[in-house]
Amino acid sequence: MKIATYNVNGVNGRLPVLLRWLEQAQPDVVALQELKAPDEKFPAEPIRQLGYEVIWHGQSRWNGVAMLSRIGEIHETRRGLPGDPDPAQSRYIEAAINGILFAGLYLPNGNPRPGPKFDYKLAWFERLIEHAAQLLASGLPVVLMGDFNVMPTELDVYKPERWLDDALFAPETRAAWFRLVEQGWTDALRAMHPDETIYTFWDYFRNAFARDAGLRIDHFLLSPSLKDRLLAAEVDREPRGWEKTSDHTPVWIELAD
C-alpha cells in the first residue's frame, strides 16, 4: 500500500500538477492539505476520473484538507479535532480505508511569534496530542500524516541558526512534536533515514529549490501496529520542479499488506 501526503497550496490553481502527479505516482491513499477552496469549488470530478474516491473539508481562500483512495471506500470518521473552538478552520480530516484509520492534518503555521497566531498553533497542537493519545488507546492501526508545520531537528532545516525565532522551529513547537511522537508513534521518514538531511518544502523566493534550502515539515506518524509494516519512506522531489507547482512536494510511504 502506497500512501502519500501533499500540501498542494491551492488545489484548483495546481490541479494540472496534482493530476499529473497522481497519474505518474499512482498512490493508493493520499492526504491533501491547503486546498484554499470552499467545499463547492473542490475539483472532485477530475480526481474521480483517475479512479479515486475522495472526501474533503474545504474553506474559502485558506486551509482545507482532503483524503483520496483508490483501494476501497472512504468511511469518514471525523472532520475537525475534538474541542476545536474555531471549526471554521478546515485543518483535520479522518477516515477508515481498507482496515487502517488515516488522519490528514494541516497544523497552523503560528507566525509571527510571539502573538495570538502562535498561541493558536500551540493550542491546536495540544488538541492534536490529546486526540492522538485516544487513537493510540483504541489499538487501531493509524496513520497521522500531513503538513505539521514543525521542523523537529536541525537535520530538518537549512541553516537552523536562522530559524531559532520562527514558530516552526521554536522550542515550544518542537517540544510539542516530541511529546506527540513519544506517545508511541513512529516518524516514518526518520525511521528509514535516521541520519539524512531531508526536506519537503522549498520557498518560492531566493531560488530556494535550486539551492536545496529547504525544510522538512510534512510528516508521517505510524501507530505501533504499523511500524513493522513500513517498507519505504521517501520524498518525491520531482513535482517541486514542475511549472506552477506547490512550494511543497509529495511525501510517500509504503506499507506491507
TrEMBL record:
InterPro entries assigned: AP_endonuc_1, AP_endonuclease_F1_BS, Endo/exonu/phosph_ase_sf, Endo/exonuclease/phosphatase, ExoIII-like
Superkingdom to which the source organism belongs: Bacteria
Keywords noted in UniProt: Hydrolase, Magnesium, Metal-binding
Matches recorded under Gene3D superfamilies: Endonuclease/exonuclease/phosphatase
The UniProt record lists the keyword Magnesium: yes
Residue ranges constituting the Endonuclease/exonuclease/phosphatase domain according to the UniProt record: 4-248
Pfam families per the UniProt record, alphabetical: Exo_endo_phos (PF03372)
Cofactor(s) this protein cannot do without: Mg(2+)
Family: Belongs to the DNA repair enzymes AP/ExoA family.
Name of this chain's protein: Exodeoxyribonuclease III
Organism lineage: Bacteria, Pseudomonadati, Pseudomonadota, Alphaproteobacteria, Sphingomonadales
